[in-house]
Design goal:
five-stranded antiparallel sheet; 3 domains; single chain; 40% helix; alpha+beta; elongated; Uridine Diphospho-n-acetylenolpyruvylglucosamine Reductase, domain 3; six-stranded mixed sheet; 20% strand; Rossmann fold; 13 helices
């Protein structure tokens, strides 16, 4: 079965799924799929100069599960790879709970040991099963083709192979593997799809697998085109975005047709959480909230997200604690060697460049807003409340308490980055200047 090794090598060369010198954590259950995966990756390891480790998770659903762990540890030792094992210790034995726990374990090991990728043995049969399973559950266009070669740090290099090919490969090479007896238990919904629906489809329709793969490949191409269009829409409507939050112009969103609203909302949520799934009911409630809620209102979304109305914007965020008031009152002394930095901004003195905001040299501090803050904006008479400046600039409430404020040793505001300069400190009569920059992280 050298040909399968060559096919995988060609596939990886074309897709760049597992770059040379990668550190790879291979998820091995002990079944034929993952045992074949480990053997294939081992056969290519020298070509790609990979560092490989093996991880096994005991779900505790079978009395003989310990035999799987022994088989996998023996294989890891045979190949000379580090071995990590975890065990499920909760009372919820639903498919979803077991899957979450397994991936949480794998990600914990990957992160703690510094590995680049988690590699799983999902194959083409799994791809078809997932498409049918998710369709039955009412999945959207993305959910029908949810099993992708790459999702974040998870890599699935065997999607181009069928289950039968992997069985033949393992048997011809006399690879030792174990059959999981729970795979035949059709009380599990996925097993019902695997053992009942797909076999009956194959009997009834001659080219069932081929036709399904062709249709799903077509859907993936359609999804790419739709997502390109949604990305362009997002560029017009998204006012602010970081790894935890996205702020969108409500009026522009409400002007869209209902079907585009639904697709754009899901698209934006998946920018924050690629694996997140939305039910139709949840989507409808979220859109109704965006259309009719008052400023300051908020509702929870599945997956630990929150939807918040803030003036004529709405925010999707995973940073729930970020919406509370920041109580940090300590001053940060700003110097060329000690810039100020939080999760949103980096304020620094630029001693070797004239780039940035030009301020007369003096001792500078950075703090957050305080009650009663006022500033004398350039271009207007008198002073203005900092609160009003935030409101006029339509800065979301959850960002205001984390916005840096540059002040003097007397606690007078000099500069609120990207918003306002105090005219008292921006004149050309000083002899000595320094330059400040503020980057959005």
């Amino acid at each position: 079965m050298v040909s399968m090794l060559n096919q995988l090598h060609k596939h990886l060369s074309q897709t760049k799924l597992l770059p040379p010198k990668s550190k790879i954590l291979v998820a091995v259950s002990g079944g034929v799929d993952s045992v074949a995966l480990l053997h294939l990756l081992h056969g290519l390891a020298d070509n790609y100069n990979w560092q490989i480790a093996v991880a096994h998770y005991n779900h505790g659903t079978r009395k003989d599960a310990s035999k799987d762990a022994i088989l996998v540890s023996t294989a890891a030792e045979k190949y000379g790879y580090p071995y990590y094992m975890g065990k499920y210790e909760y009372s919820d034995y639903s498919e979803a709970a077991l899957r979450r726990a397994r991936y949480a374990f794998l990600e914990l090991i990957r992160r703690d040991t510094g590995y680049d990728y988690i590699v799983t043995a999902h194959h083409n049969n799994d791809f078809l099963e997932t498409a049918i399973f998710n369709t039955i559950r009412g999945a959207d266009r993305e959910g029908m083709v949810a099993l992708k070669p790459r999702r974040g740090n998870i890599i699935r290099p065997l999607l181009v192979f069928s289950k039968a090919e992997l069985i033949v490969y393992a048997n011809l090479l006399n690879l030792e593997y174990r059959e999981d007896s729970t795979n035949s238990d059709i009380s599990y919904s996925r097993n019902f799809v695997r053992n009942v629906l797909i076999p009956h489809g194959s009997i009834k329709y001659k080219n069932f697998h081929h036709s399904m793969n062709r249709r799903l490949s077509g859907l993936m191409e359609i999804n790419k085109s739709i997502n390109i269009g949604l990305s362009r829409l997002a560029e017009q409507m998204v006012d602010y975005e970081d790894k935890n939050s996205i702020q969108v112009d409500t009026q522009q969103f409400n002007n869209l047709s209902s079907i585009i609203q639904k697709n754009l909302l899901v698209f934006l949520v998946k920018r924050l959480q690629p694996s997140h799934s939305f039910s139709r009911v949840t989507i409808a409630k979220a859109i109704q909230f965006i259309e009719s809620s008052k400023s300051g209102a908020k509702i929870p979304l599945p997956g630990g997200l929150q939807l918040i109305n803030t003036y004529d914007k709405f925010v999707i965020t995973s940073e729930l604690e970020g919406f509370s008031e920041n109580t940090d009152e300590a001053l940060h002394i700003l110097s060329p060697t000690k810039p100020f930095k939080n999760n949103l901004f980096r304020v620094a003195i630029n001693p070797s460049s004239r780039a940035g905001v030009k301020i007369p040299k003096q001792k500078l501090y950075v703090r957050y807003r305080q009650a009663g803050d006022r500033v004398n904006p350039i271009g207007m008479q008198g002073s203005k409340k900092l609160q009003d400046i935030f409101v006029d600039a339509k800065i979301p409430r959850h960002l205001r308490s984390h916005w840096p404020v540059v002040v003097t040793s007397g606690n007078e505001i000099i500069w609120v980055p990207n918003l306002v300069k105090n005219r008292k400190f921006f004149d050309d009569t000083a002899d000595n200047y320094q330059y400040l920059t503020c980057e959005v992280i």
